[in-house]
Amino acid sequence: MRYSAFSIVKNALSGNLKWKPQWRQAEPKSHYDVIIVGGGGHGLATAYYLTKEFGVKNVAVLEKGYLGSGNVGRNTTIVRSNYMLPGNEPFYEFSMKLWEGLERELNYNVMLSQRGVIMLYHSDGQRDAYIRRGNAMWMEGVAAELIERDQLKKMIPFLNYDHARYPILGGLLQRRAGTARHDAVAWGYARGADRHGVDIIEHCEVTAIRRENGVVTGVETTKGFIGCNKLALAAAGNTSRVGEMADLKLPIESHVLQAFVTEGLKPCIDHVIVYGGGHFYISQSDKGGLVFGAEIDGYTSYAQRGNLATAEHVMEEGVTMIPGLSRVRVLRSWAGVMDMSMDGSPIIDRTPIDNLYLNCGWCYGGFKATPASGYCFAHLIAKNDTHPVARALRLDRFARGYAVDEAGAGPQPNLH
Amino acid sequence: MASLITCPHCGVRPKEEFTIRGDASLIRPAPTASDEAWHDYVYVRANPRGRTLEHWQHVAGCRRFLVIERDTFTHEVHSVTDGAAFARENGR
Ligand SMILES: Cc1cc2nc3c(=O)[nH]c(=O)nc-3n(C[C@H](O)[C@H](O)[C@H](O)COP(=O)(O)OP(=O)(O)OC[C@H]3O[C@@H](n4cnc5c(N)ncnc54)[C@H](O)[C@@H]3O)c2cc1C
Ligand SMILES: [Zn+2]
């Protein structure tokens, strides 16, 4: 069913009892052309574009939990394309453009809100670094604005401008950036993929990858063996474990990132604000809760829960930036397990096994990438050829000496 | 993880006194080793879900490097050894 004003009125008049499920509860067939492991945003977007854009038929998405139970439903929903490196910026801008058309594309309200993302700076050196980043964005045709302190004070009066150690001197603003409703992104892509015939199979964990004569022939799952011509991995924080099933050696560590939401407040924070003095970032959800997070816990982790000391540190940073936050109650906190790659950038590539494809290493930033990641991964799987904007994100970049290191932190994942 | 780490030199201390450097199971290749060996050492990680060895430094204490065996799922710390002692024991 297509959603429209008419369908809403019609369903309202029949007591909202006649809405159909958004996707079928599919049972696995014995064989697929393409199997995608992971029913997160990336896996579902890949399935959608594979069938819709590249005409591949007979596709399944296997998800070990329920759809959207991974990081797609755990993130802080920020979408932006204010990256600096030429290997990254065109990719994230491609994603931003897809976001801008996504509601129409999917006929689904993903609640994209281009409220602007502003990154604060606290020193002359940091201002120069942000000017450089802004210029790098302009060079790729992406608008960026440097906001000086006086102007910023008018826009965002409640910040702590006179902090002794981290006075706020200004910020770099991308107006087109903002937030989107994370669950709706997963559901919208799932519904779209389902409409193009994709089997979305929940509660189906991949436990082994079967290979014959050097090619993948299918996967063992908790619902039995399922054969395939091509296997695509989009397992976010569990990439190393799934990769191990095919003896892949990967430049990935799993790290846990926490997020928090407060009680609902009247509208008070109009933008996404990122605190350059640390790594704190905050926005207000449409329900009114303040959504925020900061850095990863620092050590590798597969536990979907965080460390209390990190939670305390996040609060400290938040209150340093916005003193008024100390009066607000936190309702919930949660954590997600993410792939941290050795250069902080993602990997979309073929693997040494010809019919095995890899999508991983999204670190902090994979939600904003969901549309472009799905599109580029589908392009790769369908054509066996890298999409132009994902060219710098290949797996062999480390061996070739072309790491894409936005943070300039070197091969240490917990510093990205 | 367990929020306490027992430093062999300083005793039981909060985890916040320590910083982590990462995987301690890797062995540095010889300078003349192949590009592949160096690539694996610098970039490839086993990343197990379970027990792992890590370098931590007791920065707010004795400043020694330690090797900690930790479970990446339960966050339990199984053993803490002085870094130099660990290297000697393992013939590094
Ligand atoms: C707290 C937090 C805040 C974040 N904030 C942002 C943000 O503001 N902006 C941003 O751009 N990014 C953010 N991110 C990062 C972003 O959420 C991720 O990079 C992105 O969601 C990963 O892609 P995905 O949606 O496909 O992953 P997931 O939703 O995790 O999908 C992977 C799926 O694979 C499944 N799976 C794993 N192993 C198997 C198996 N063996 N068999 C079957 N299925 C399997 C998992 O169950 C999971 O559902 C944040 C992450 C966290 C944790
Ligand atoms: Zn000590």
Question: Could you explain the architecture of this structure?
Answer:
The complex is a heterodimer of chains A (416) and B (92). Chain A is α/β, with parallel strands linked by helices and 416 residues long. Chain A has a domain at 115-177 and 253-341: D-Amino Acid Oxidase, subunit A, domain 2 (D-Amino Acid Oxidase, Chain A, domain 2, 2-Layer Sandwich), CATH 3.30.9.10. Chain A has eleven helices and 18 strands. Chain A has helices at 5-13, 41-52, 89-100, 102-106, 124-139, 149-155, 182-195, 239-244, 308-321, 366-383, 397-400; strands at 31-37, 59-62, 78-79, 117-121, 145-148, 170-174, 178-179, 199-201, 206-212, 215-221, 224-233, 252-264, 272-274, 281-284, 289-300, 330-341, 347-350, 356-360. In chain A, strands 1, 2, 8, 9, 10, 11, 17 and 18 form an eight-stranded mixed sheet that branches. In chain A, strands 5-6-4-13-14-15-12-16 form an eight-stranded mixed sheet. The longest helix of chain A is centred in the C-terminal third of the chain and has 18 residues, at 366-383. Chain A is globular, with a radius of gyration of 21 Å. In chain A, 51% of the residues are buried. The mean pLDDT of chain A is 97. The longest helix of chain B is centred in the middle third of the chain and has 9 residues, at 35-43. Chain B has one domain: Folate-binding fold (2-Layer Sandwich), CATH 3.30.2270.10. Chain B contains two helices and six strands, in the order E-E-E-H-E-E-E-H. In chain B, a hairpin with a 7-residue loop joins strand 4 (51-57) and strand 5. In chain B, the strands form two sheets. Chain B has a four-stranded antiparallel sheet. A two-stranded antiparallel sheet of chain B has the order 1-2. The mean pLDDT of chain B is 94. Chain B has helices at 35-43, 83-89, and strands spanning 4-7, 11-14, 19-23, 51-57, 65-71, 77-82. With 92 residues, chain B is of the alpha+beta class. Chain B is globular, with a radius of gyration of 14 Å. In chain B, 17% of the residues lie in helices and 36% in strands. Bound molecules: flavin-adenine dinucleotide (FAD) and zinc ion (ZN). Residues 7, 9-10, 58, 61-62, 64 of chain B line the site of zinc ion. The site of flavin-adenine dinucleotide (FAD) has 39 residues of chain A, from helix 2, strand 12, strand 16 and helix 10.
